[in-house]
Amino acid sequence: MESVGKMTPSSLSASDLPWRVLWDKERCTLCGRCTAVCPVQAIELGVHRQRLFQAPLGLTQRPTNIVKVYHGIDQKTDPAHACVGCAMCDYVCPNGAIHPVRSDQVDKLRFHVNQNGEPRRRGGRRNDPRSILDEIKFIRISMLTDPALDAGRHDFELRTLLGRVLPAEEMVKSMRDNGWIPPVREIYPLVIGSMSFGALSPTMWEGIQMGVAYLNEELGMPVRVCTGEGGCPPRLLRSRFLKYVILQIASGYFGWDEIIHALPEMKEDPCAVEIKYGQGAKPGDGGLLMWYKVNRLIAAIRGVPPGVSLPSPPTHQTKYSIEESVAKMIQSMAMAWGFRVPVYPKISATSTTLAVLNNLARNPYAAALAVDGEDGGTGAAYNVSMNHMGHPIASNIRDAYLNLVKIGKQNEIPLFAGGGVGKNGNLAANAAALIMLGASGIQIGKYVMQAAAGCLGGENDRCNICNIGLCPKGITSQDPRLYRRLDPEAVAERLVDVYRSFDTELKKILAPLGRSTSLPIGMSDALGISDGAAAARLQIRHVI
Amino acid sequence: MCRLFAVTSREPLSPMVAVRALDVMKEGHDGSGMGLFLTDLGGPFERFRGAPILSGIFSHEGIRTLDRYMMELDFMVKYKFSLRPTKRPPEGTPKRDNYLIRVYDYPPEWLSLSKEEIEHRLMVTRLELRRMGEKDDSMIVFSFWPDVIMIKEVGDPMELAEYLGLDNEELQARVILAQGRQNTNYDIDIYACHPFFIQGYATMTNGENTAFVPIREYLTSRGFAGYMGYHSDSEVFTHILHFAHRHLGLGIEMYKHILTPLKDEELERHPDGRRLRAVKQACRPLIIDGPNCVIGCLPDHTLFMVQDSKKLRPGVVGGAPGMFAFSSEMCGLDAAIPVRNKSEDFQPMKYDTVMVPPERQEVMRWNQWER
Fold this sequence. Notes:
The complex is a heterodimer of chains A (544) and B (371). Chain A has 544 residues and is of the alpha/beta class. Chain A contains 17 helices and 21 strands. In chain A, the strands form seven sheets. Chain A has an eight-stranded parallel sheet with strand order 9-19-18-16-15-12-11-10. In chain A, strands 6-20-21 form a three-stranded mixed sheet, with helices on one face. Chain B has a single domain (4-49, 147-367), classed as Glutamine Phosphoribosylpyrophosphate, subunit 1, domain 1 (4-Layer Sandwich). Chain B has helices spanning 16-24, 60-72, 115-134, 157-164, 212-220, 235-247, 252-259, 264-269, 273-282, 330-336, and strands at residues 4-13, 33-41, 52-58, 76-83, 98-105, 139-146, 148-154, 173-179, 196-198, 201-207, 292-297, 303-307, 316-320, 323-327, 352-356, 364-367. In chain B, strands 7-2-8-1-14-13 form a six-stranded antiparallel sheet, with helices on one face. A six-stranded antiparallel sheet of chain B has the order 9-10-11-12-15-16, covered by helices on one side. In chain B, a hairpin with a 5-residue loop joins β11 (292-297) and β12. In chain B, α6 crosses α7. Chains A and B meet through α4 and α12 of A and α5 and α9 of B.
């Protein structure tokens, strides 16, 4: 038997990889763009030997072999250079001569992505395209007993509240006695969730901020964006646009030195402060910005040395109990802005969500609760955390809402739900379903990257290399050669497109339900699902 | 669609005035039921102004249970008025044993109680009777309150009125609310029939409240025993009125601000925007939706009408000093008060609340843009 050369346990063929690069010799111009653009250098110039057999006619000449050489593409098969399926090679190829194809086999690479004992880390979200939110239908259609509304012509009040709302009795008393009323923001119910400066590229961040400013100032849509844990650029902190921003503080406190020092110079209060205790993509794990992305700019804004990985602790180190977290952290953050800014925690969805919620309900300064489900995205996390840790958002937010109903505080603590909203493109339907299950508002992140910037990531493990700063679209990269591919103005325009189309779609859902005067929070009678167990669990109608 | 008619008059009227008005509006309702709310009573009831009146439908067994229960509480029957139809009921109307209207004397130990406590106990007694009768429909209780009579039944309003003998001259009231249809959105249940009543407040609605479920959840989680029932999505209108007026102490003008608050950008321009915004936020789960015209009566006998935020249901008010009527349709108003200055008829729009105070001298219009 012929020797196959040196073989290691991790020696794989292209057939063992999740993505195989198919290349057409006849159409290839050998321009080299594909090899240049590949973010993981999965392909390289290949020099191939070809044996041609020539059998001349007649009997005088003997058949011969000719050995020729031709040039083309080789796919690397070592785990570090396995194709990620981003298809940028296809995007740049002038002749359509190359594209990756998903293997129909269960790949073998998964057993080898722990070289040197380092488990796989990646960006993206849980590799599972299923979504219970997609299965929920809106079944209470206004027919004859009440007229369906006109999504195009009627007035709709699509606003929600972020902030602690006093019970009606106390509000009336406070108004009469000129007492303290906690700050409450009236905002658009679709919030751009926390994606940090650092996780996102400067161009992506700038694009989002420009888009949000346009939505507010030109279209009158009070859209808010959360910074994530990475601080906030100094100019934005000192600008009037800060009122559209929710500042996030997390366990690494990155960027908060800069924020605290900017306090006296702030022209506007931020919309709110979000205290991150957890994230749906990696529940119970802290934030992670890998060293690849910590350049001088990021390091300066975060107040850290450049070129080092920045793993935030899984919890706020100075806090030992929920009471302390809630009582001290929320109150001290509220105090920093003179109790004019709502302060609320964000947690990853968990079976202990109700314990957190009940604690918040007892604290008059807790402004809301954001819950991030297992399908939430991230810029970097351990693969095992993303794929296996966490709680689905639908039942978690439903339980939380029904718990508030039980204690009569459903209007006092707004719930914000996130995690996989719109993962299959059904943004408005998913958001409306969560609102009718009890959420006051929705947080999205990955959808913005996909729709406003062209993120290629997918739940069939496509791309997902946000963590190493090699995003081929420049969305999550800190390398100027990559992030200059992304035009911030175009991102802003697309963000506006996303919100305008969402607004229309949401109206197209609410109008047939006969709802327009207020957001249908908890309107569970409108929801149905064909899965009986899911219907019973969510306390919505079982329809088949 | 329901048809509503309400009248307030200096002189006591027979409920037949309202029934006839419903009858002329018959094209708009299916004649499937009728609910009547009578207050500021005339006739023999005038003598018992402060004494609670129990209204409901009772089987013979139910009456025995009622008597046992009320005697235990030390209530004494002061006056009885029974509608006892003898002939066959109209088609679709069930045969009942007793349509009961009874005036009681308070238990002696109640006399030392505060007004609030007495009113609370009256409500609790009504709820307890209702609960006791729910198993076998032996006791269906509509109201237990001084100066209030309620009659409800399944069937065509005019046929029912003749069957029940509502033209009885002992039945007289200065304020009458009448609704001509059974609930069709959910199971037919006599408790789903408008008007609804709680502690002196009554409302009836022509419409469909699409925000019903979250509102019901909010009301039932207030910890107040009276916020129950909800066989109809319209019952929440009565309870929202009770919550706003009695519990929060807000004026009737705030009822409209709670049901259909101004939009955020409108509040920016409103002279009282700050206060209204606070109320809007605190009462957010009580915002109604869908097409609704609400006609109601306050404990002081003020009649009012409000519309939904888009004015999707009809409603007109007209009359002359001494007598005004609120009607779903003009023809109902014409039937009840044919002689009036029609140019002063008023159809409230999406921002309006119209009221006729107990003096019955004028129709007061109030707009959400007013301070």
